Amino acid sequence: xxxxxxxxxxxxxxxxxxxxxxxxxxxxxxxxxxxxxxxxxxxxxxxxxxxxxxxxxxxxxxxxxxxxxxxxxxxxxxxxxxxxxxxxxxxxxxxxxxxxxxxxxxxxxxxxxxxxxxxxxxxxxxxxxxxxxxxxxxxxxxxxxxxxxxxxxxxxxxxxxxxxxxxxxxxxxxxxxxxxxxxxxxxxxxxxxxxxxxxxxxxxxxxxxxxxxxxxxxxxxxxxxxxxxxxxxxxxxxxxxxxxxxxxxxxxxxxxxxxxxxxxxxxxxxxxxxxxxxxxxxxxxxxxxxxxxxxxxxxxxxxxxxxxxxxxxxxxxxxxxxxxxxxxxxxxxxxxxxxxxxxxxxxxxxxxxxxxxxxxxxxxxxxxxxxxxxxxxxxxxxxxxxxxxxxxxxxxxxxxxxxxxxxxxxxxxxxx
Amino acid sequence: xxxxxxxxxxxxxxxxxxxxxxxxxxxxxxxxxxxxxxxxxxxxxxxxxxxxxxxxxxxxxxxxxxxxxxxxxxxxxxxxxxxxxxxxxxxxxxxxxxxxxxxxxxxxxxxxxxxxxxxxxxxxxxxxxxxxxxxxxxxxxxxxxxxxxxxxxxxxxxxxxxxxxxxxxxxxxxxxxxxxxxxxxxxxxxxxxxxxxxxxxxxxxxxxxxxxxxxxxxxxxxxxxxxxxxxxxxxxxxxxxxxxxxxxxxxxxxxxxxxxxxxxxxxxxxxxxxxxxxxxxxxxxxxxxxxxxxxxxx
Lengths: 416, 298
Fold this sequence. Notes:
The structure holds two protein chains of two kinds. Chain A is α/β, with parallel strands linked by helices. Helix content of chain A is 45%, strand content 19%. Chain A has two domains: 32-175 and 326-385, 3-Layer(aba) Sandwich (Rossmann fold); 178-309 and 396-411, Response regulator (Rossmann fold, 3-Layer(aba) Sandwich), CATH 3.40.50. Chain A contains 16 helices and 15 strands. In chain A, the strands form three sheets. Chain A has a seven-stranded mixed sheet with strand order 7-6-8-9-10-14-15, with helices on both faces. In chain A, strands 1-3-2-4-5 form a five-stranded mixed sheet, with helices on both faces. In chain A, strand 2, helix 5 (70-88) and strand 3 (95-103) form a beta-alpha-beta unit. The N and C termini of chain A lie far apart (75 Å). Chain B is mainly alpha-helical. Chain B has one domain (2-267): Orthogonal Bundle (ABC transporter involved in vitamin B12 uptake, BtuC), CATH 1.10.3470. Chain B has twelve helices and no strands. Chain B has helices at residues 2-28, 37-53, 58-82, 87-106, 127-146, 148-158, 160-165, 170-196, 206-219, 225-240, 248-262, 275-297. The chains are: A alpha/beta, B mainly alpha.
């Protein structure tokens, strides 16, 4: 009996391998979000002419499983909503738009595998994501060779720039650089809040948080401020009392914590409050963890924290989107977040580029993206790309957290 | 299509190379390690430094990475083996080792850029090159385990005290297995760096170590071809399971549980994969079926 079951298992494995390698389209259908059906139902005349045989395929590299699956799953839902809207309005160039997403959360090599699969097997016209810098840095040469534009929503400088300073021709970043976010926070803290002593807390092996802290320290010290303690924690840490003790001894006014996900910040804030330091030490944060769910989890513990974000979730453009999303996707049990909005912004850039170029050719889309002088974003403002393919247009909003709500203190930019 | 499949083949070859090392250490010498990702990391960093700063070509850089990892293997191996660490204590010591490597590398900025990692590594790991290297490594491992050294290792795994009584230098033999495993993992680390073109200390995590160990146990202790096949299956599985979307990694874990439940000795047990073996297996099945058919007709 045992042998029989083992044999069946082995056969299932072998068969699924054959199925995967021989029938490409089957696997794709699993992840392809085909909204054509809805479109022809709701869209009237425009959707009636929609070319569904020859769809425009947009790939998305998602962090869609594990503890931080909310990052990818929310973005997928937001992109699908937007695509549904596009198809209802007649698609792009009269063609239906399809989203094909793959999860990349198992290990680093997955972003390369998934990108190769999107390009070679699904033959996508452009790719959105990933939202993690270590996953995006390596993709420049792959998309360049295949001439497929990639629009990652992550912040490390090397995502768009090679070591020799040249720009990766097919990579266009749709989120602000980590350095810019940190510099803005340093200036706001020093000049506007009058903060003089700051401690920093970073995830020791996370490229984005380490880079953000480095940039903050450089800028804050250059302004005349003092960094009184530099602490770190490890991936998936939930216990911060040791770091809090060290930081409290250094007596900083604020702790700069540019975490990549919100659970660390919530734990830190709650433990800070438990240990009785929540009145004397507050957090300076970034949009990496700024999320309505974080405020719900941490409750009052985050009160008094100041966050710099390239999008204001309370703005008149975004607040209704957050509400609408919560109603439509109650099953996800996660709020619309900033990185999902960046992904939607990337899709908007692609809509613009494909329509302007009148083609889905990689080089044509690339040229249209490079030449644009501004695309009106549904999140507000007009964005375009500079010579390094970094977005120009996102304005940093400073938010203060009061009573479990983020209150906008207005737009702030560093004077050059 | 070609690039996607060659990408998967590359990952398989890298996994197989690393697993070859662990086969010698765990499958044949009986030492469980939960930290061999540390050696992959060291090998990757050493070879990348050799390539970027000293302009080594790919293969010499890979061997350099392997040797660097083996040297660290000697340094770490001597006190642990001398201290007669084995079983759970050794596994945990290795877990500590890989974390030390990860955090150590995160804090060293000259040459290796700390947590920010090294980018723009040349993409030398072509599928056919790494497949040839992996095949060569499997062959070497097979020959090694069939030699006097392999039999000594097996004697240590099965009955350490008896092996010591007949005059086997247990400490040295264990260190030897350990260094060989570190060498293969170091080479695999180099191949990975030249495939992914960007490495950070986080690239080789505890999950990597666990997957390597899983491949050895999953394939069968005391077999070389078993872990090789298991490493290939475990590398392909996440890609094969993409059709179940976000449930993919759950299913991956479930398949591992099922296999271990129904084949606790692993895919191949202590045997090796061979055409003759398959023919024998089929003959056995057919003769059983024939006998059953005979019983029914009676």
